[in-house]
Amino acid sequence: MRARLPALALVLLLLLAGCSSGGTRDDGRITLRFQSLAWQEESVEANKALVTEWNATHPDIRVEYVQGSWDSVHDQLLTAFEGGEAPDIIHDASDDLADFAYGGYLADLTDLLPARLKSGIPQRSWETTTFGDGVYGVPFLQEPRVLIANAKWLGRSGVRIPTPEKPWSWAEFRRITERLSGRGKYGIAWPLKEPVSATLNLSLSAGGQLFHRAADGKVTVRFGEADQVVPRTIHAQAGTDGSASPTTLGSGGSDTLPGFFGGRYAMVPLGFSYRQQIVQQAPKGFDWQVLPAPAGAGGLTQGVSPQTLSVAEDCPHKKEAAAFIDFLLRPPNMVRLALGDWMLPTGTRALADPALRTSEHGWATGTALAEHLRPAPAQTVRGYPEWKDKVATPALQEYYSGAIGLGALRERLEEDGNLVLARYQR
């Protein structure tokens, strides 16, 4: 055992060296660590290939690919920031950036990004990564929520098939799911294991806002009539109409696919990227289609929290890190990343690529929804992660299951929620 100690110590030293932030080697070559959260095989391959291409053409600025995980990224990054061991280039989601940006952990990219990249992404997307007077991430991938439908089932029923030009209203959607239900089958299966983002983002289509910012910058929660349209619809489908499966309310999106393929549910609301799983897992001959989510007073508007690329404030080579981000997000490369993740690029030139506008697998429906995507309601709200985990998630879960009524839901979202947010706004 003693004979192995020197080797073990060497391994530990190498691991510690690998965890430290990028720097300059003795030979003058800069090394940057890029932590990616890509997880689908195609996406991982696309990211790694682009890193390889960068390294082949930039011998003096080497990028090391580091695999991260969506499941633990917030806590992992917080620990890394506080320990001075954060990666130089950080893949995350825009709704996770506020506390890191205000906490001084992320670099302001305002003067580091080239004009091409700034102008190539719409302002509405930049708003998701703008906190105060600074820009703390580059939004590059996004996905609308859509309805994945059993095409044969809908065709036999004779219901009107919605399009982005003529979507269902929320009231029509409720009536149709009820019409599609019966004999142990359901018109819809809502996977609401994590109900907050789905509820808030879809509520923008009904004119909802939920978070209200005063002139002094402080944010309060007000659960008004428009905010109630989506949760009331879901609650009625599951508890009154019998058109939504009650067993899927505590499930994740992937959990609903076997029942969907088995003909138990006519439709499932999912993120656009779930199409990849459907292509891979659907039985031979299963006919499915992508439909737009229902629309209300706000039209097809949806909230989104794009995937982002940021630079750590402690990165000693911010200019070089920004140059790598610019390379990664050139229009052809952004298309490759979008195809790998089965999502939509934020860049206007990339979004116009024919590969993303084909009718196959519903790509054209998704790209038609891109112009309606707006920053998620909680985008710049400090304390949102705690509000979501401690207040909104359990309250919405209890409401959808029928354990509490609308009045109790409103009280908890507003009164309990505002107590949480107040701690971050003193």
- By oligomeric state, this entry counts as single chain
Average pLDDT reading: 92
Q: Tell me, what's the shape?
A: globular
> Given the structure, what is the number of helices?
18
Helix fraction bin = 40-55%
Strand content: 15-25%
Distance between the termini: 55 Å
Report on the biggest sheet. Answer: 7 strands, mixed
Q: Unreliable runs, pLDDT <50, ≥5 residues?
A: 1-20
Secondary structural class: alpha/beta
In total, the number of strands is 17
Radius of gyration, CA atoms, in whole angstroms: 23 Å
Summarize the structure.
This protein is an alpha/beta fold. It contains 18 helices and 17 strands.
What does this 3D model show about the protein?
The chain has 426 residues and is an alpha/beta fold. Helices cover 42% and strands 16% of the residues. It has 18 helices and 17 strands. Strand 1 (23-24) and strand 2 (30-36) form a beta hairpin. The radius of gyration is 23 Å and the shape is globular.
Please outline the helices and strands:
Layout: H1 5-19, E1 23-24, E2 30-36, H2 41-57, E3 61-67, H3 73-82, E4 89-93, H4 98-102, H5 115-120, H6 123-126, E5 130-131, E6 134-135, E7 138-142, E8 145-150, H7 151-157, H8 170-179, E9 186-188, H9 195-203, E10 211-213, E11 219-221, H10 225-241, H11 257-261, E12 265-271, H12 275-281, E13 288-292, E14 302-304, E15 307-311, H13 318-328, H14 331-341, E16 344-345, H15 348-351, H16 363-369, E17 373-375, H17 384-401, H18 406-423
Parallel strand pairs: 2-3, 2-4, 9-12, 14-17
Antiparallel strand pairs: 1-2, 4-15, 5-6, 7-15, 7-16, 8-12, 8-13, 10-11
